[in-house]
Amino acid sequence: MDALCKQAMPDLLLLLLAVIPDKLSVLPAAPSAPKPPLRSRGAVPASPLQLTLWESQDLQLTCAVSSQTPQHVHLSVSFGLSAPDASRDVQPLQEVIAVRRDFAVEAGERFAERHRAQELSLAKTGDRRYQMVLGWLRPEDAGIYHCVAGEWIQDPDGSWQQIAEKRVVLAQVTVRTVASQLAASASPAKVRVGSGEALELLCNASGLQAAPLPHIVYSLGWEVSQGSEGEGRLVARLDPGGALVLGDSYANRDVGRRHVSLQKLASPLGSYQLRIESAQPSDVGSYRCVVWAFVRSPGDKLREVASVRSEALTVDMKSEAVVLEATAWLPSATIYRGDTAEVRCNVSVEATQDIALALSWWVELPDEGPTSHGVLLASVSREGVADLASRPSGGAVSVDKASPTSHRLRLHGVQPSDEGKYHCAVTAWVRYPDLSWYKAGSAKSNMVTVYPYTLGE
């Protein structure tokens, strides 16, 4: 009988299937050195843990992963994020960071830049514990955090097979924004100031933490616009380091450096005073106090995360109008080539304050288009300094005052190429007690024609 069986079944291939028991375990764990987070009001210990953190704080989550599988296996551990209102069982995860089966640490696509910036890390802190630290929290980091563990074996051909995967919810995280706590108010609601008087405005800023949040710095300043809804230009601000920065309109070559201060007051708490020592007509407008919040990154760069503006307050000024007129004329109607051509500019000013005048001379040449603004020949600054340019013919130019109200331009050795329409432009400047300058008005004269005749013509 045995012989017959052997003849009927000459070769039997015996296939044995071994079932590897599921010995993978993944559990939430407390951080090795916990930083006490803010817990949501009324929350009780439950799964998942409910955490409320401020923007810019650090989120630390730890999970414990172990395997008792008798075979040699490799583990992968991944921290993932899902939407706060999603089902914990079916919601796909957005990977935050993971350690792969080959021990490489990789961040998810959305978090890769933050990993490179050292705001995100993952480390093994013991035989079983894996800790993720997501620093410099942002509002979009809110959600449900999971830990996913995988168990892997390597086949003889070198390929990898995942034999088990388990997932656990670590915490539901709410991120409170810095913007939600900031507020600013300005007073008084309306100010009427005289030219040259000091202008003072108050700003009360709330929400600047008495115990500052990590990595958060603040800046406070004032903006002014010509209308309540217009785009504001910077008056002054205190940068995050406390240094005063003036707007371009308050420190430049034309106006000088105006005396503007912005300082924090001892009381009431959160109050800041803007003071412009000598108000000018250009200071009229709608003012807003602005508070900015920045996050300072590991590379010391600042990223703006919030700003808030107060309601507008109005600054008005008692009118001190300046009436300015300029008239150009020719002392001699007939000018011959080679002579000195003379153009006069009479200036009249009506003002209640001392005025300094700046004057310039221009020519529009016959071959220039109608949109041309002309060629500058000479100018005299408000300090009385002359700046002479080149004439079209290349000849000499001189300027002086023929009388207290009459200015003179001379073209020496006039040539045919000097033919054109000449005019003067005048600007009135007012100097204030803080030694800054204000452009009070400007005027452009009529045109006069210079035509050099040929002798005998």
TrEMBL record:
Keywords tagged on the record: Disulfide bond, Immunoglobulin domain, Signal
Keyword Protein biosynthesis attached: no
Domain Ig-like, first and last residues per copy: 180-291, 320-449
GO cellular component: membrane
Xref: PROSITE patterns: IG_LIKE (PS50835)
Signal peptide positions on this chain: 1-25
InterPro entries with a match to the protein in the record: Ig-like_dom, Ig-like_dom_sf, Ig-like_fold, Ig_sub, IgSF_V-set/TM_domain
Disulfide bond keyword on record: yes
UniProt-recorded name of the protein: Immunoglobulin superfamily member 8
Source species of the chain: Podarcis muralis (Wall lizard)
